[in-house]
């Protein structure tokens, strides 16, 4: 794997610390609204202690939309009665808990991890986001766009990531 001079820098120099996380009681709609307002592609899910227990990505939400779309495309016997479709959409996005759509398999790194090692982990595991934790507590997030900034010669910064 090719390494970059700045790749020896610690993740903490590049991670975003202005992160928005939700707890397990958040709804899918809460996550959608947060992603839109913060213009981010993932939201970590934390427990009451601030420990990372999951992550919701745009991909997870796309799967919800696709499964809802498949249900709507089914041969429902009374298609003229569309109230069931409205109820389905409201339930899926209004009241379904984030725990029903989140991924529990979250890629974690420590703040001292080098950017080269974090990039290797991201590539090996197929993740686009890494939660930066210390003693199980969420400190920040590292995304693929942070690596683009690194390779492009940008600078790190506590809130430079997306």
UniProtKB/TrEMBL annotation:
Keywords: CBS domain. It holds the Pfam family CBS. It comes from the Bacteria. Residues 15-74, 102-160 form the CBS domain. Gene3D superfamilies: CBS-domain. PROSITE patterns: CBS. This is Cystathionine beta-synthase, core domain protein.
